[in-house]
Each structure stands twice: as structure tokens, then as C-alpha cells.
Amino acid sequence: MRVRPAVTLAALCTLALGPTAADAQTDVPAAWSAPSAISDAPVPAGRIADLQVVIDEAGTAVYVWRESDGAKSRVRSRACSATVCTAIEELSDAAKNAQRLAVAQALDGTVTAVWEYSVPSAISARARTGGAWGPEAAVNAAGLRTLQGAAALANGGLVVASTRAAGPLELSACTQRLLVCTTSEVSTPGATASVPQLDANGADRAALAWVEQGAALTRVVRYAAITPVPNAVPAAAASVAMSADSASTKTRLAVDVDKTGVTTVAWVERDAADALLVQRFAATAPPAAPPALPVFTTPGTIADDSLQVQSDDAGGAVVLWATELGGAQTLSTLPYSVLARGTQQAVTTDGQSLVPQLAVAGTGTAAVAAIRDGQVSGASAATPAGAWTAVAPAPVDGSTAAQPSLAAPRTGQMVLAWVTRTQVNGEQTIRTARLTPGTTTTLKVVRRKRVHWTVSTRVTASATGSFRQVGRIIVRGRRVVACRVAPLGVTAGKTRIATCRLTRAATTQRRRAALRIRLVTTFIADDGQRATATIVVRLARRR
Question: Which residue has the higher pLDDT, 100 or 515?
């Protein structure tokens, strides 16, 4: 979190009065860092694909993408902290052509890259723990499959969704460190599966949803829960129908599983008008068919690539979608608190938001990034139900942007990656920027005893939650003798008071005037940045 300086609070109290308090508050808006380059050199147009970014257990941004040399594509990766980047690493076999990349992350920070080789057809993966990528492992036996997604479970467990040419949907499940993987068919025999979506909470639960079309050419949304099995591969439960079996077109699923196991499945049904359907249910409750939760019939068309769902650590979630009508586009969000639906919010109401990306931090801070007019645009909200404020990284001159990918940690800065293309020769470069969420800092001075003053500092930050740390100004007679701060400890992702000191003017006094105590407190953020807040307390002479 970025610390912003100088909040000043003045409190006037007499020793004869009872406890009093005064507050001062400062609000710092969310802000993006200047864009920086991730790729080592520009490459010809069209050679960078599937760019994705996640944040590992140490707060390091891990970038994974496919890059072609003109003949074959290979999977590459680079890791960057806020100040330094590693060298670019080659993850896939350079002698093979890699395609359809997916990246999954567990709660412990383990990052797994999964990709599909074209010739011979196979799906492989590598896991990154402790800052290093492990060896490549085969996820399933050779066979013509199309990679559809991947999700991570606890202890290095992994689940991968893929479809075969004939139409069935398969689930491959792997144990820790990809030592053992098994593959089984999860869709109904004889049916054709499409638009599968897979997500996991990085620990003990994953969810797979897909659209299934049978011999009667009707379509139904089906869902299967996936849970880890100790010392074995994860297991998928029998699938259940989430929607009515009808002839209406069902497109663009979105799936999310939160930390508590609450699952959200959203999809679009196209009939006379586009309808957005949302099912949100607890881990112990099966989904209803047809859905028991809200259905939104929207004027206009819902963009297929816009529907997304993300959750926080406290049972909140956000559904994002874009609606187009008469050439205008509205990018909207719908918040949830556990199973309760909130109020729909408009993020943008004009212009085309291409490839919108949604990220929600564990603390509830939400951000949206998209491509508008060839550049990256965005907005942020302090809570899933909060109002959205426009915020975007500075444009890269002489270029257009594409392929945005947005990642949110549980606490701290969000990271955005995108590909820029120069307008002169079309060369591509990967760029990144970090979003420091907005903060609200409140300082309060409370008189506790005749000669003891307690300075209570409350920092409320969307990236860090709210916490308190107490300091004391010790006064003896008319002199200030000490300034002390109770230790908060080193807590990752939280700004903390490190020291406090008194200025030279702390013990100056005049006849019939108050004793002015000026306390300067130093704040140190989780990334090492420092700032000071000044509190001025005046002790009036007792009459």
C-alpha cells in the first residue's frame, strides 16, 4: 500500500473537563503506477497471445504468455516485484508448438501454467512454488483435446477441463506437484459439451459448469462440484442440471468459488431478448433448476466476452457484464453479500469497453480494466457494492493496447498487464502497471487520565482493512516526558506505526497559554514507503 503524508489534528481540552475526542480524516484516491515493460524486446505483430498475470504468495506478479518465433509458439514467464524483475524463463518445450494457455493459482500462492501442444496433441503443466518453476509434467495421455481451463486446489492439486473433437467434456485431476494425473469424462454420454468454465477457491473446492446439447438439440447448463481427496487425485461429483432444458441459446458461462465454498454461476440465455441468469449457492446446497435466484432481462445484447464473476474473502462477490444497445454500451456490476443480492451499479455508460477484466481483492476492493479507444481504461470501488470511480494508467504514446489481464491479491496492490502495439510497424510489447487502492486514514486523540493522553490511530484502507494502533503521550506536570507507540507487529499488507517522536516545541509554554504538544508519527507501509502524520494537542491551564 502506498502511504500518503501529513494528516494534522488539533484537539483543545482542559484538565478539568471530562474525556473529549477529535477526528481528522484524509482520503487518498486509487492511483496507477507508470507503465513499465515486461517483455525483453518488441516482437513482430501478432506473436504475443494468452497474456495472463497472477500474484504469488510473496506479492510478486507472475506474468505468463505465449510467444511465437514465426514457426512455433512457446510459453514464457517473468516475475516482478514492485521494484525488480527476474529474467524471462521458457516454460514449454521449444521443439513443440504450444497453444491455449491457462494459469491457475492456489491459496498458498502456488502458480500452475497449463498449455496444449498441437503436434503431438497433449496437455502439459508446470507449477511455481517458492519463486521457482518445477519440471514439466503431462496432464493426460496423448490425444486430440482442446484445453478449456484450469483451476488450483490445496497442496498443489490441479484440475483441468478439456474437450475432445467428438464433443465430450473431460476433467483431468492431478495430485500435488503434478505427480499423478487421471482423466475422466464428466459430460453426459452422447451429448456435446460447449463453453465450459472452471474455477476453484485455491483450497478445498472447485466448480465446473458447461452447456450440454443432446440429440433433441435442446440445451441445458450442467454443474459439477470437485473436492480434493487426501493423498489422491481430486474427485468430481455427478453433474446436476442448473437450467431448464430448452431450445434457447445459452452462451458465455462464468463460474466463481469463494473462500467459504459459496459458488456463483452466471450465464446468458438468448431467446426473444438476452437474459442474464445468476445462481449463487452454498457448498452444502445444490443449485436449483430452473434457477431460484434473479434473472435479468436486458434491453440490447450482452457481449459474450464480458461476463465475469469474482469474489472476496468475506462472502462478497461481483458479477460483471456489458450490454450494447443502439451503438452505446453499458458496463455493469451486480454485488452479492453472501447469498443476498445488492444493487446493480454502472461502471461506464458510453463507448466500447473491449475485453473487460474484473478483479476483486480478498478485502473487497474491486477494479475493472478494459480497452477503450485503443487504450487501457478502468475504474475501482472500495467495496463490491460501492460506487465506481474512473481510474486508468497513463497511455503509452504512439501505441494501441490489447489483451488486458488484471490480478488482485488478498491485500495490497493490484496488477494489470496488457500488450501494446506500435502504430508505426505494429511491433508488440508487454506492459504492466500497479494499482494502489484508495485509502481513508483517521487520527483520533482521546484524553484518558489527567496526565496521560492516548493517541489512537485508525487506518481504514480498502487494500488493508481497518485496524487500530495506540500510542501514548506521557505528561508530568506541565512537561511532556515521553511518546510511546504500542507495537502492532509486522503484518503483511498492513500499514503500521513504526515510531513517534516529539518536536522541539513540545514543552514550550507561555503564561496563561496552553501547552502545545506536537506529536509526529511515522507510518511504514508493507512495501517500505514512509510518511508522517502530525497531531497537535493543546493542554489548557486549569482555572
Answer: 100
Query: In terms of Cα–Cα distance, which of 499, 460, 471, 528 is closest to 25?
Result: 460
**Residues ≥6 apart with Cβ < 8 Å to 410:** 313, 361, 362, 363, 493
Q: Tell me the per-residue pLDDT of 29-40, one tens digit each, with 9 for 90 and over.
A: 778 888 999 988
Q: Quick one: fold of 31-50+156-176+187-436? A: Neuraminidase (2.120.10)
Residue 70: CB partners within 8 Å, gap ≥ 6? 44, 47
The confidence score (pLDDT) of residue 174 equals: 84
DSSP-assigned letter for residue 314: S
Cα distances from 102 to residues 151, 214, 261, 318, 543, in angstroms, run 9, 28, 22, 22, 74
Cβ–Cβ under 8 Å, residues 370 and 393? no
Condensed to tens digits (0 to 9), the pLDDT of residues 443-502 reads: 444 444 443 444 444 444 433 444 444 555 555 555 555 555 554 444 434 444 444 454
At residue 56, the pLDDT reads: 82
293-306 confidence digits (pLDDT tens): 667 777 778 887 78
End-to-end Cα spacing for the chain: 46
SS3 505: helix
What's CA 304's distance to the chain center, in Å? 21
Question: d(Cα 455, Cα 24) in Å, to the nearest integer?
Answer: 12
231, with CB counted inside 10 A (0-12, 13-18, 19+), is: exposed
CA dihedral 246, 248, 254, 256 (to 10 degrees): -30
Q: How far apart are CA 405 and CA 366, in angstroms?
A: 14
C-alpha cell belonging to residue 390? 474512473
**CA 355 to CA 372: how far, in whole Å?**
9
Number of H helices, E strands in the chain: 0, 46
pLDDT at 238: 78
Query: What is the rounded CA–CA span in Å between residue 173 and residue 184?
Result: 9
Q: Look at residue 285 and tell me whether its pLDDT is greater than 50.
A: yes
Question: All 3 cell numbers of residue 402?
Answer: 490489447
Name the DSSP letter for residue 58.
Answer: T
- Where are the chain's structural domains? 8-29+439-540, 31-50+156-176+187-436
For residues 374-382, average pLDDT: 85
